[in-house]
């Protein structure tokens, strides 16, 4: 039986059978997520799966059924994720959200999670519609896109990646549910990153938003995807040596020693430039294209736990002597 680096079989990372529509992009994301977690060697008991409300928020039931899980109130998943991480810094907090859960009712919590740089992976399964309430436009639907009944979206869209970069996010990437070759290493790099790692994943809704006129259909995304880079991820275990032709790879060292290697295209996209990332996103949007890949990363910003000087010991493991100040210390404090 084949096992990963911590001795676990791939089946350990599976969950319940999906109840989503056959062909849903969210199911593809789940499969890529299982592959990423298995190859990375995530310990199930150290994984906390968080979600809100929506089709996307059902996803945590479909992978790593031995992990911790919490299904929160619509749009309030970042609060639960913050509490979990502050209580136990050893947890890998992985939040699964959607375009409604993030860009509409949850946009306030999304913004404050980013500015605090909470150490978590925040995945947005983005299909541009509200699938649970019969397919109305969401806030991420592109201006001018249409529903199956011919209704045209007359409102400007909210770009969750552009917003994240503007708010100071330290890791921002976009991908497509049908592109596992790009998405799997992006998930692994997000896990290794210390801080808020935002992954916006275009995920077509086969029931309500996979038709001519939709800008989030399978056909449209395949025809309008502009690849900024094809990241690779190498998790450091033993000494690793690589040999690449000069000028073809941009190596970004993460603060835990891991690296994201960017195979550059002709535009020499620089994922360390916040202004450059914003410009590239706007340019692509103006052409009706989706810019995918690692859009921005900054590994030098401390995460929320570091800023708040949280103990590395999980709060559940602290005893009374650790939490209560003694009489002598009180006397010194008041003196």
Care to describe what's here?
The chain has 335 residues and is α/β, with parallel strands linked by helices. The protein has one domain (10-317): Rossmann fold (3-Layer(aba) Sandwich). It has 11 helices and 13 strands. The protein has helices spanning 25-40, 77-87, 99-103, 107-116, 160-166, 180-192, 218-224, 274-286, 304-307, 320-323, 327-334, and strands spanning 47-51, 68-71, 92-98, 120-126, 129-130, 136-137, 171-176, 196-202, 225-227, 229-234, 249-253, 259-264, 290-297. The strands form 3 sheets. The protein has an 8-stranded mixed β-sheet with strand order 2-1-3-4-8-7-13-9, sandwiched between helices. α1 packs across α6 (180-192) and α5 (160-166) packs antiparallel against α8.
Helix percentage: 25-40%
CATH class: Alpha Beta
CATH superfamily: Thiamin diphosphate (ThDP)-binding fold, Pyr/PP domains
- CATH architectural designation: 3-Layer(aba) Sandwich
Structural class: alpha/beta
Distance between the termini: 65 Å
Low-confidence stretches: 239-247
> How does the major sheet shape up?
8 strands, mixed
Q: Any key phrases for this structure?
A:
335 residues; alpha/beta; Rossmann fold; 8-stranded mixed β-sheet; 3-stranded antiparallel β-sheet; 13 strands; 29% helix
Summarize the model shown:
With 335 residues, the protein is of the alpha/beta class. The protein is 29% helix and 20% strand. The chain is globular and about 75 Å long.
List the helices and strands and how they pair.
Blueprint: H1 25-40, E1 47-51, E2 68-71, H2 77-87, E3 92-98, H3 99-103, H4 107-116, E4 120-126, E5 129-130, E6 136-137, H5 160-166, E7 171-176, H6 180-192, E8 196-202, H7 218-224, E9 225-227, E10 229-234, E11 249-253, E12 259-264, H8 274-286, E13 290-297, H9 304-307, H10 320-323, H11 327-334
Parallel strand pairs: 1-2, 1-3, 3-4, 4-8, 7-8, 9-13
Antiparallel strand pairs: 5-6, 7-13, 10-12, 11-12
């Amino acid at each position: 039986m084949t096992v990963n680096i911590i001795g676990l079989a791939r089946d350990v990372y599976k969950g319940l059978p999906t109840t989503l529509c056959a062909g849903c992009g969210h199911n593809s994301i789940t499969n890529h997520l299982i592959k990423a977690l298995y190859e990375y060697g995530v310990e199930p008991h150290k994984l906390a799966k968080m979600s809100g409300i929506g089709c996307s928020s059902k996803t945590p039931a479909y992978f790593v059924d031995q992990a911790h899980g919490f299904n929160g109130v619509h749009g309030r998943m970042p609060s639960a994720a913050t509490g979990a991480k502050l209580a136990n810094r050893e947890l890998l907090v992985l939040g699964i959200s959607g375009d409604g859960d993030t860009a509409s009712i949850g946009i306030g919590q999304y913004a404050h999670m980013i500015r605090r740089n909470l150490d978590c992976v925040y995945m947005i399964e983005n299909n541009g519609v509200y699938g649970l309430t019969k397919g109305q436009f969401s806030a991420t639907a592109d201006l001018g896109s249409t529903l199956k009944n011919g209704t045209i979206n007359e409102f400007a869209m909210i770009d969750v990646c552009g917003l994240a970069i503007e708010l100071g996010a330290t890791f921002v990437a976009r991908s497509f549910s049908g592109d596992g070759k790009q998405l799997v290493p992006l998930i692994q790099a997000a896990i290794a990153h210390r801080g808020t790692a935002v992954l916006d994943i275009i995920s077509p809704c086969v029931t309500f938003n996979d038709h001519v006129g939709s800008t989030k259909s399978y056909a449209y995304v395949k025809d309008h995807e502009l690849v900024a880079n094809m990241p690779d991820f190498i998790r450091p275990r033993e000494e690793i040596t690589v040999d690449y032709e000069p000028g073809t790879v941009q190596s970004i060292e993460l603060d835990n020693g891991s690296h994201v290697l960017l195979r550059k295209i002709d535009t020499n996209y620089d994922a360390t430039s916040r202004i450059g990332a914003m410009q590239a996103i706007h340019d692509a949007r103006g052409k009706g294209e989706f810019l995918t890949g690692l859009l921005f990363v900054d590994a030098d910003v401390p995460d929320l736990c570091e800023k708040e000087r949280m103990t590395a010991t999980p709060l559940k493991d602290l005893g009374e002597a650790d939490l209560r100040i003694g009489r002598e210390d009180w006397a010194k404090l008041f003196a």
